[in-house]
Specification:
Largest interface: A-B, 14 and 13 residues
Largest sheet of chain A: none
Helix content of chain A: over 70%
Structural class of chain A: mainly alpha
Number of strands of chain B: 2
Strand order of the largest sheet of chain B: 1-2
Number of helices of chain A: 3
Distance between the termini of chain B: 105 Å
Shape of chain A: elongated
Oligomer: heterodimer
Number of helices of chain B: 26
Shape of chain B: globular
Strand content of chain A: under 5%
Radius of gyration of chain B: 31 Å
Number of strands of chain A: 0
Radius of gyration of chain A: 17 Å
């Protein structure tokens, strides 16, 4: 089994950092395009963690899950961009705070 | 003829239904014709029946059909007509007819003329069913029927809320007695397995010894029913208020017939009551106590109808005294004479009220003897009979009662003395009424003349009140042997002299020295004692404190539905929680994100801080 060029911990640190950036983006950004981008960042952060872990333990599962995440991300983007179009059409804005009609 | 006895209660009932159905469309002459005519026909049939009965005194029993048949209970609609029933039927139909005739004129100006006659006819019908029934269940039907009619007629002028209150009071107070009576019937049925009056008497005497507990209990429960209907202590408070109804109603229902139903019931059930000397003693003491209480109250009243109402209570007290000492015939005799002279007095007061702009206060009358001679003669004869002056009808019956009371072994002289004191006060208040209303200064002038329909019933009742004492009732062999009523001569002398003394005292007070009349006899608010008497011994106030106000207070508490408070609290908590939770649903995605992140951090924190042992497990 071939040893990884970078230590696993470093990869996981980067992955966590990316995830946190995505999360903060979700919390802070109001434009729905940026929210979708933040989501992509978070998905890729987790995908990175899977790849690194798979390589560390020499298991193919990590890569399998990466492929799954990739397809999920594609599907999610398709739905998400559809939503963006609809929101733009109905609210004439992309600000998610204005689209709060489902408040209690 | 005997096959047609069922027509006697049916005719007034049919007339009542007819008048109710076509009430507003009939001219008043037709209403009067039907209302009075139906009772008149019943009276004729009853007279015919009585004539045949006097010729050939046989028991008449008629069974029309089976009314209720459940298990052992078998109640027929059947009539049992013996001497006692004949006497009661004669009183109800004949006095009833005279009062109907009087009503034709008295109520002429009333807008609800036909409603009045419908109720009155229904009453006569129910009262006839009550006295003719051969079983206690049908009797109870009549008993409740007269109660309903009494309620309807007391509240006849329902436009005034006070009349409605009086009607409700009459109904509810008698209802207390009726409930006790129902319990009595149930006891009799479970113990004896029958409600037929004749078989109850027979099987009770076969089953129970004199003085047993069961017959005493049943008798006391029946007595409570009788006391409620006949306005005896402690259930008598409804009768003075029941004077809110039209005056002929007071004459028919609250003097002559309905209020004597209790006396009839006890006389009818004498076979049962003789088994319980304790209950008989209670009846005698209730009777004499009520007679005294009501007589003293009557002496200070100022409303002419309330005086007569208290005097009715007092006279029925005498009947109860007679029943209690086992003088059954005397009780029924006094029932009859009382029906004559008290109907006379009430109709006489109706004639006065009719002509004096509905004035009830006797101190606003006065000097009427020249203006209203018929009413004056009626009152003179009626009051003489009420006071039991010699040779009037009331004299014979009351004398019989007092002498029978005197001869009772145990409490005889005590009861006799009480009755005698009552007789003295009776004479005093009845002649106070006559002297104040008909002598002295004229206060209010009559504004109309009374016609023949008022004059004729008064005249006939005058004659009956005078000669009623000479009637011999067909009650032979009906009641158990009674004592021979001839005690010492001095007892008889005292009994005769006492009412005369009362009349003389009234004469001295109200005619000879009118300036020195005790204030309490004119305006009862003057002294403390007369205030108590005026309010009927404060019993109304006591009942209000004891029963009415706790009831109304608890209903006012319950009307706010305290039990629902618990369920309302559940609803309230849910609503608060809902408001709180729906506040968290702001509709802002970023807000949700933050809460997810916080939740994740909290969960992570918990996972980290949990002790090692747990996580391994």
């Amino acid at each position: 089994m071939q040893e990884l060029a970078v230590p696993l911990n470093h990869v996981l640190f980067v992955s966590t950092l990316l995830f946190t950036i995505g999360m903060l983006g979700l919390m802070i950004r109001r434009n729905i395009i940026f929210i979708l981008m933040s989501l992509e960042v978070m998905l890729n952060a987790s995908a990175l963690a899977f790849i690194a872990a798979g390589a560390h333990w020499g298991q193919a599962d990590g890569q399998v899950i990466f492929l799954l995440i990739l397809s999920i991300a594609a599907a999610e983007v398709a739905v998400g961009l559809g939503l963006v179009l609809q929101i733009q059409k109905r609210f004439k804005t992309l600000d998610m705070d204005d689209a709060n009609r489902m408040r209690g | 003829m005997q096959d047609f006895v069922w027509l006697i209660p049916l005719l007034p009932l049919l007339s009542a239904i007819f008048l109710m159905v076509f009430s507003s469309k009939l001219p008043s002459t037709i209403v009067a014709l039907f209302g009075t005519g139906s009772v008149g026909l019943s009276a004729l049939l009853t007279c015919n029946l009585t004539w045949q009965f006097l010729q050939d005194p046989r028991l008449i029993t008629v069974t029309l059909w089976t009314w209720i048949k459940v298990g052992e209970l078998n109640a027929n609609v059947g009539f049992h007509i013996d001497g006692l029933t004949i006497v009661m039927m004669m009183i109800i139909t004949c006095v009833g007819f005279l009062i109907h005739l009087f009503s034709c004129e008295f109520m002429e100006d009333d807008t609800s003329y036909s409603r009045y006659f419908a109720y009155l006819n229904m009453f006569v019908s129910a009262m006839l069913v009550l006295v003719m029934s051969d079983n206690l269940l049908l009797l109870y039907l009549g008993w409740e029927g007269v109660g309903v009619c009494s309620y309807l007629l007391v509240g006849f002028w329902y436009q005034h809320s006070g009349n409605g209150h009086a009607a409700r009071k009459a109904f509810i107070v008698t209802r207390i007695g009726d409930t006790a009576m129902m319990l009595g019937l149930l006891i009799l049925f479970t113990e004896l397995g029958t409600l037929d009056i004749q078989s109850i008497a027979a099987s009770a005497q076969a089953r129970w010894q004199t003085g047993d507990f069961m017959p005493t209990l049943a008798c006391l429960l029946l007595l409570a029913g009788a006391a409620g209907k006949s306005a005896q202590f402690p259930l008598h408070t409804w009768l003075p208020d029941a004077m809110a109804g039209p005056t002929p109603v007071s004459a028919l229902i609250h003097a002559a017939t309905m209020v004597t139903a209790g006396v009839y019931l006890i006389a009818r059930m004498h076979g049962l009551f003789t088994l319980s000397p304790q209950a008989m003693t209670v009846i005698a003491f209730i009777g004499v106590g009520t007679a005294l209480m009501a007589a003293f109250s009557a002496a200070v009243q100022t409303d002419i109808k309330r005086i007569l109402a208290y005097s009715t209570i007092s006279q029925i007290g005498y009947m109860f005294l007679a029943l209690g000492v086992g003088a059954w015939t005397a009780a029924v005799f006094h029932l009859m004479t009382h029906a004559f002279f008290k109907a006379l007095l009430f109709l006489g007061s109706g004639a006065i009220i009719h002509c004096l702009h509905h004035e009830h206060d006797i101190f606003k009358m006065g000097g009427l003897w020249k203006r209203m001679p018929i009413a004056f003669v009626s009152f003179l004869i009626g009051s003489s009979a009420l006071a039991a002056l010699p040779f009037t009808s009331g004299f014979f019956s009351k004398d019989l009662i007092l002498l029978s009371a005197y001869q009772l072994e145990e409490f005889g002289p005590l009861l006799w003395a009480g009755g005698l004191l009552g007789a003295l006060v009776t004479a005093l208040y009845s002649f106070r009424l006559v002297f104040v209303v008909f002598f002295g200064q004229i206060q209010t002038l009559p504004d109309k003349e009374n016609g023949w329909r008022i004059g004729l019933p008064l005249s006939i009742l005058c004659i009956l009140s005078l000669v009623g004492g000479y009637f011999s009732l067909p009650l032979n062999n009906l009641f158990p042997m009674e004592r021979d009523s001839h005690p010492d001569a001095w007892v008889e002398m005292v009994s005769i002299a006492t009412p005369l003394l009362g009349v003389i005292v009234a004469y001295i007070l109200f005619i000879r020295t009118p300036s020195r009349i005790p204030k309490s006899l004119i305006s009862p608010q003057e002294t403390k004692f007369s205030r108590i008497l005026f309010s009927g011994w404060k019993l109304d106030e006591i009942y209000d404190r004891l029963f009415v106000s706790p009831y109304t207070r608890s209903t006012s508490v319950l009307s706010h539905e305290p039990v629902d408070k618990l369920y309302n609290a559940v609803v309230l908590i849910n609503q608060k929680l809902n408001a709180w939770l729906s506040f968290s649903q702001s509709g802002r995605m970023r807000w949700y994100m933050v809460s997810i992140a916080i939740g994740f951090i909290v969960l992570l924190g918990i996972a980290i801080t949990i002790p090692k042992g747990f996580s391994q497990w």
